[in-house]
Amino acid sequence: MNEAAHIWMDGALVPWAEARVHVLTHALHYGTAVLEGTRAYETAQGPAVFRLDDHLTRLHHSARIIGLPLRYTTDELRAATLKTVAANGHPACYIRHLAHRGYGEMGIAARSAPTVVSIATWEWAPLLEQGVRLMTSSWRRNDQAVVPTAAKATGPYLNSVLAKSEALDAGYDEAVLLNAAGYVSECTGANLFVVRDGRLATPPPSAGALDGITQDTVERLAADLGVPVARRDLLRSDLYTADEVFLCGTAAGIVHVDSVDNRALNGRGPVTAKLSDAYDDVVHGRDPRYRHWLTPLG
Predict the structure, then answer these.
(1) Is Oxidoreductase included in the keywords of this UniProt record (predicted)?
(2) What is the pLDDT along the chain (298 residues), one digit of tens a residue?
(3) Which of 126, 151, 153, 176 is most open to solvent, judged by the fewest CB atoms within 10 Å of its CB?
(4) CA-to-CA distance for 122 and 15, rounded, in angstroms?
(5) In a 3-state reduction of DSSP, which class is residue 94?
């Protein structure tokens, strides 16, 4: 891992190796934490964080959903994020926001355990390479009646860990999860789009998919490019018969899928290419229409 110099923890920059938690931290035992993954990109005006306020708003919403007190405002977390990126001297980086219930009391509820907030940054290449080999996992996506899938919380990510491990062990790059009803939900850490006859479709949050910020970005870019897009239920067979399939997320970017369950697709098709190129221009500040999505360090 590309370690940086500092991690921000509850108001202070501490050396990377000293950003520690107690072994009886509540979140380690019960998954009581929420997170965000954000990126800063190189632009002609210097490093800038993409859709930072949207990520911080979702962090607050996730904390509210799981009942985790979060005492820092969006303004305070924005300032802390920019301070951390600048202190670590990154030209571009990944940013991990984490709010977790810390050490202070054990037991399921443990409401007196304090909330600890941290911001770590490091230089990290996209998690998936182009031409993903995708498999349908035997694991099903978490049911909303069991866990709140609208919250980007750490506990439910065990579902993704199991599916990702299964895919890697079977020789694939990534897994797609179906929900309990058999509809396509999302991948282990990315949303999914299919293209058919020049039209885009992506699973809705009701399918158990996270309401992704990169997913929303793709939808907005598609609308501006004149590409029809809809959120609707998708079957496994829709992936097999698609003209194009691509994944998107902060950690992955936009990556095309070469095959699903060993059914070959057409690779990086024209719609995927158009959206991928537009996304690259936006995050690097080359398209002035979307500069409001970039928060510079200065």
Answers:
(1) no
(2) 899 999 999 999 999 999 999 999 999 999 999 999 999 999 999 999 999 999 999 999 999 999 999 999 999 999 999 999 999 999 999 999 999 999 998 999 888 999 999 999 999 999 899 999 999 999 999 888 778 888 999 999 999 999 999 999 999 999 999 999 999 999 999 999 999 999 999 999 999 999 999 999 999 999 999 999 999 999 999 999 999 999 999 999 999 999 999 999 988 999 999 999 999 999 999 999 999 999 999 8
(3) 126
(4) 13
(5) strand
Nearest to 208 by CA among 166, 147, 161, 260: 147
Q: What domain range is 200 assigned to?
A: 132-283
List Cα–Cα distances, 108 to 26, 28, 50, 111, 152, in angstroms: 8, 12, 36, 9, 20
Q: Tokens 């409001």 belong to which residue? A: 292
83, 152, 164, 274: the active-site residue: 152
Tell me if 203 is assigned to some domain.
yes
CA distance 42 to 233: 36
The C-alpha atoms of residue 56 and residue 35 are separated, in whole angstroms, by 9
Rounded CA separation 89/108 (Å): 40
User: Is 152 an annotated catalytic residue?
Assistant: yes
* Residues composing the chain: 298
CA distance 225 to 227: 6
DSSP 22: -
* Backbone torsion region of residue 10, taken as left when φ is above 0, otherwise alpha when ψ lies between -120 and 50, otherwise beta: left
What pTM value is reported for the model?
Answer: 0.96
Residue 116: CATH number of its domain = 3.30.470.10
Round to whole Å and give the CA distance between 234 and 113.
41
Same domain, 116 and 39: yes
